Amino acid sequence: MKKITKVRLHNFKRFRNFETDFDDSLVLLIGDNESGKSSILQAMDVVISGSVSKVQTIGLESLFNAAVIEEFLGGKKKYENLPEMYIELYLNEQDNPDLNGRNHSLRPVDYDGLKLKCAPRDDLSEDINEILAQDHPNFPFEFYSISFTTFAGRSYTGYNKHLTHLLLDNTQINNEYATREYIKTVYHSAADEKEINKHQNEYRNHKSQFKDNVLKDMNANLEGYQFGIRTGAKANLETDLTILEGSIPLEDRGKGRQCFIKTEFALTRKQDKKPIDTLLLEEPENHLSHTNMANLVESISSSEDKQVFISTHNNMICSRLDLRKAVFLNSNSDTPTLLSALRDDTAKFFMKAPDNNVLDLILSKKVLLVEGDAEFILMDAFFNRTTGEELRGSGVHIISIGGTSFKRYLELATLLNIKAAVVTDNDGDIEKCKARYADYETDQAKVFFDAAADRRTFEIAMYQDNTLICDELFGEDRKTLTVQDYMLSNKADVAFELLDKKADALTVPQYIQEAIQWIRE
Questions:
Q1: Which of these, 85, 19, 39, lies nearest to 335 by C-alpha position?
Q2: Residue 516: which H helix or E strand, with range?
Q3: H or E element in which residue 7 lies
Q4: Does a cis peptide bond (omega within 30 degrees of 0) precede residue 108?
Q5: Which pTM does this prediction carry?
Q6: How far apart are CA 369 and CA 515, in angstroms?
Q7: Nearest in space to 292 (alpha carbons), one of 324, 337, 260
Q8: Domain segments of the chain: what residues?
Q9: What are the strands of the beta sheet with 165-169, ordered from one edge?
Q10: Which of 143, 378, 472, 498 has its CA 20 to 30 A from that of 7?
Q11: SS3 89
């Protein structure tokens, strides 16, 4: 099987220099907005395609790193200082001498791979120097060469490319052109050249027969003009093809169903003729319901004989498909973080646990992990009472995860260098609580709980620190349960009422104040 093992980018889109290794079956690209997830998929799509026209259609000015161009134009505009851009895809060993060599940036080792390089043309250096001599900034994109070569130094094009791939962008699901191009790509991956030529010839012949037979009588009654059937590049077999589910064309389905059909069709199509080596999925969760999302995850999990790359913002896709296969991207850095070091039991926990907020953690810089809904409901008010500031805009994210999951999230936070504070109950045993998290506390991770054993839960601490308020709100007509017992039995409802009626008067338990102050440092 053909696999992409590594990508290296130089001056491409937001990346000056970027490198990451890939899992050989599934790669999850996870990151915040503008972190480069889509750029990596686009880079792979462009290199595999081997299409100069595709690069020209996109435009070099859109592919080159904008900061590099700006620095060049603001400095000494010399021909020898012109930046180059390249994308390298490293492949597993193919036993193909056309792929193996040192035409890459990791010399002197031989690798199998593909490369796109954009560089100024030496034969046009005089013309380029004339442009650079102009007073106003003018970068000579038009004078750059675009070359597709293997690591053996051999040229390739879309007609003799070395990987079969499909890019599916569900963010463009309502784009008629994107749908048509998707169907065309799938058709070409399902049929060989001989079949395609035969289909196109027969389709054109059927059109001609329709004109000669069906329209014949009507045209015989017309003088000077006749009805005909369109032929040519804009009206042929490939433009008229669609994919049917039952008897309903793909384009007549709702957006969510279109997304699901396209993705599942690409994942499950039989690989007996022209297998798809590389499947690139851009935000496959777009427009999908929770049920269809679960079905999609199952389809991705059971997909075989292809390498699947997914950019996503979806918690279910991130966790259910194994976080160890994730590449975490940060908009402030060109250095990715791989989660392959995540412990096996932690990865399996996130794959099997109820729906979680793992992506919220991954995309955070600072996070407060709380034990339940009550703490989560009141944390905005606690933050304001402690700091005099609003939680929104502070850069601190609150996640309610349940006490049994704290260690899993702390492990993930440590791998990603995310500052994490845990706010938890002491359960009436201070020493046991300390020992439970001793191996997980670092300079970037700290656990906070009440220092008094008799304040074993959040509700008890809240009652003792806010007795008058709690008695006023929850003491009326209390016959069987004490106010404290009532609070313990109705945690979320009590928290909401405290927030709704007394947010500005609450005393914040000391251990929560300490957690808030520490996470802000």
A1: 19
A2: helix 510-520
A3: strand 4-12
A4: yes
A5: 0.79
A6: 10
A7: 260
A8: 4-22+36-159, 364-520
A9: 165-169, 278-282, 307-312, 26-31, 326-329, 337-338
A10: 143
A11: strand
